Amino acid sequence: MQRIGLALGAATLTAIPVGIAIGQNRIARGIFDPLIEFYRPIPPLAYLPLIVIWFGIGEFSKVLLIYLAIFAPIAIATATGVRTVDPARVRAAQSLGATRWQLIRHVIVPSALPDILTGIRIGLGVGWSTLVAAELIAATSGLGFMVQSAAQFLVTDVVVLGILVIAIIAFAMELGLRALQRKLVPWHGQHH
């Protein structure tokens, strides 16, 4: 859980500003969008060997792999949310004398927040899958490692229990993020 927490925190802190930049600035879009779209479709486990070669098999490599899996969905969702902000809101804030920072903080981010939170939910799901898969392949601890070790010795009950625990944790994280989304953006998804 610490690995996913660190990766999610780092991805959120970096992907949201990158997504805002992509959504608002053509130059930033030209720089970041191709890079993200290049690596996004590659399964994270495909670049696991490269990360291990460059950074070793320690915790940093695992967190980096999960970070890379989580970053793209958050950045893309944030950029989408920023691009769909109602221009009338932006003009209204500008006519009231809002600075660039005030515009981002009080208009753009709140308007894009439903998309940002959806990106975090998607990113967390991808990150959790990546964490478990990486533990199945190259780890000495964690749920994936436990399932893999039990499978080698044909201990079916431990394998099933491990899978259930993985599913329950994923479901709990999803429910937690949905609750957070309802709390932060209660107006989103309501039809009149």
Automatic annotation (TrEMBL):
Gene Ontology cellular component terms for the protein in this record: plasma membrane
SUPFAM superfamilies: MetI-like (SSF161098)
GO biological-process terms attached to the record: alkanesulfonate transmembrane transport; cellular response to sulfur starvation
InterPro entries: MetI-like, MetI-like_sf
Predominant subcellular localization, coarse grouping: membrane
Keyword field: Cell membrane, Membrane, Transmembrane, Transmembrane helix, Transport
PANTHER family tied to this protein: ALKANE SULFONATE ABC TRANSPORTER-RELATED, MEMBRANE SUBUNIT, TAURINE TRANSPORT SYSTEM PERMEASE PROTEIN TAUC
Family the UniProt entry places it in: Belongs to the binding-protein-dependent transport system permease family.
Name of the molecule in the record: Taurine ABC transporter permease
Organism field: Pseudomonas syringae pv. spinaceae
Source taxonomy: Bacteria, Pseudomonadati, Pseudomonadota, Gammaproteobacteria, Pseudomonadales
